[in-house]
Amino acid sequence: MTTGKQNKPEGINTEPPPSDSPPPPPEQLPERLLKCDAVLSLTGEREIFNSLQQASWKAAHSVYYEDQKEKKWRETDIIARRSWARQRKSGTQYCTINLTIECKSVKDYNIIFAPETLDNHYSAVQAYWFPGEGRLQKLASNLETTELNSKQTSLFIRNLEELAFPNGRSLLMDFETPHPKAPLASTAFKETNIKVDKDLDASVLWRANQSLRSAIDSFRKTQFENDYSSLQDIMQTARRTSNSVHDSAMAFANKLSHEINVFHPIIVIESRLWKLHETHLDEIPWCRHVHIDRTGVADWWVDVVGRSHFEKYSAQLTKHYELQMSKTGARQLKAPRKPMFY
Questions:
Q1: Residue 294: exposed, middle, or buried by beta-carbon count in 10 A (0-12, 13-18, 19+)?
Q2: Is 268 part of any domain?
Q3: Is residue 271 domain-resident?
């Protein structure tokens, strides 16, 4: 055992290294937090949320959902909803517009969009409707596997098709309302601060695009799963109570066929947006970024809006949908229909 004071080894500093930046005094911490990027981002989201609430949209901030492809929980910054209804002989028909929004910041970068190249590549409406988008085939396959025999399934699908597509047209065709025409619809962009051009995978705009696409795809898949599960419950209840399985299922399918959810994806970005010409650039308030496949067919679009222009953009968007819905004879509901997809 050693006693007394131990000498420090020569040439070795055993003192803790000095801190690069001492912690701020407690009274300065809130001030510094309010100026940091994370809090500024959250504040920006709340501003957009509040402006939509004031414009009579029912908004939700930070919506969590299960990614149906990767089976992971993810978050969408804002969803704002409005619902309309109208009476028809077959029953009440409903349409809900869902503004699905990602908020991003690339303050030191500019986003430059190439000129428009196609006339109709931004016309497709993104929506969920129970009998639409090839779901009748999936529904037939599911029913024949779990609930009905082949003959019963064929009868159910035939009757549902007649109900949902009278005279060969969608029952809710005029509810698939066109979105407003954009000042520019572009398929190509660059994200740059002049010195650096971001690769696609590193692009903030591209990642926001992918996030929104994943969210809306998941919403539609989740809604179909929920609808099909409810249809199964209806059939099983009919069997237990000795009611007609076909009639009970058709009554519920008729109800589902009278409702549509239309999605409008939006990226609000703290950046300046530009339209490229041959010899010059024009600054633009917003742009519709369109994805086309190798055949030139558009399979996705999203509105990209400069943060400083969002209030004007949202006011025009609100007015557009109000006008389009009034043309269908629908009236706005005081509260939107309950979402089933998140």
A1: exposed
A2: yes
A3: yes
User: In which element (H, E) is residue 197 found?
Assistant: none
What does the DSSP 8-state code read for residue 126? Answer: E
Both tokens assigned to 208 = 């926001």
The answer to whether position 337 is within a domain reads: no
Please give the tally of structural domains in the chain.
1
Task: State residue 152 phi and psi, 5-degree precision.
Answer: -65, -40
Phi and psi at residue 98, to the nearest 5°: -115, 105
Strand partners, 180: none
Kindly state whether residue 100 falls inside one of the protein's structural domains.
yes
Start-to-end CA span in the chain (Å) = 68
Asked if residue 75 lies in contact with residue 60, where contact means CB atoms within 8 angstroms, the answer is: no
pTM above 0.90, yes or no: no
How far is residue 307's CA from residue 313's CA, in Å, rounded to a whole number? 10
Report the C-alpha gap between 161 and 128 in whole angstroms: 16
Q: What is the DSSP letter of 231?
A: H
DSSP, collapsed to helix, strand or coil, labels residue 186 as strand
- The runs of H, that is alpha helices, within the chain are 29-35, 37-54, 135-146, 150-164, 204-240, 245-256, 310-327
What pLDDT digit, counting tens, does each position of 120-155 carry?
445 678 899 999 888 898 899 999 888 889 999 999
**CA 188/CA 209 separation, integer angstroms:** 13
Ordered alpha helix ranges (H), 27-149: 29-35, 37-54, 135-146
Question: Domain limits at 91?
Answer: 77-332
The mean predicted confidence, pLDDT, of the chain is 87
Beta-carbon contacts of residue 10 (< 8 Å; ≥ 6 apart): none
